[in-house]
UniProtKB/TrEMBL annotation:
<feature type="domain" description="Dinitrogenase iron-molybdenum cofactor biosynthesis">
    <location>
        <begin position="10"/>
        <end position="108"/>
    </location>
</feature>
<protein>
    <submittedName>
        <fullName>Dinitrogenase iron-molybdenum cofactor</fullName>
    </submittedName>
</protein>
<dbReference type="InterPro" id="IPR036105">
    <property type="entry name" value="DiNase_FeMo-co_biosyn_sf"/>
</dbReference>
<dbReference type="InterPro" id="IPR003731">
    <property type="entry name" value="Di-Nase_FeMo-co_biosynth"/>
</dbReference>
<dbReference type="Pfam" id="PF02579">
    <property type="entry name" value="Nitro_FeMo-Co"/>
</dbReference>
């Protein structure tokens, strides 16, 4: 499965989602480990104010669809972006560690535990 996270050039988590200059798409295997990692210079920081909020969200939606993203990991996303992700059935998982790769693996592991606990109850 493909998971997107905003990243900085040093590999840390970028705190801005919709205004991230760069994002990574991690291909996560069935064991929750990263099998592939690609970074993309999206320039959402620069493009954010070019046009309407809706057109900016559409830009992000296109990226998510083009890369078959099934979950996002971030420290923050605005309410409008949260609604957009919810409408796409793409969960927004919390980035809790400073390094992006480790944060993706931690978020996936936490989501798996939460899903398992829900199934068991």
């Amino acid at each position: 499965m493909n998971v997107m996270i905003p990243v900085r050039p040093d590999g840390s988590v970028e705190p801005r989602f919709g205004k991230a200059p760069m994002v990574a798409v991690a291909q996560v295997d069935d064991n929750g480990h990263i099998a592939d990692w690609q970074t993309f210079k999206v320039e959402w920081d620069r493009l954010h104010d070019e046009g309407t909020e809706g057109s900016h969200h559409a830009r992000i939606v296109r990226f998510l669809r083009e890369h078959d993203v099934v979950a996002c990991v971030a420290t923050h996303a605005g309410i409008g972006m949260q609604r957009t992700l919810a409408a796409m059935n793409i969960p927004l998982l919390s980035a809790t560690l400073p390094q992006a790769r480790q944060s993706v693996e931690q978020a996936i592991a936490s989501a798996y535990v939460a899903a398992r606990d829900t199934e068991e109850s």
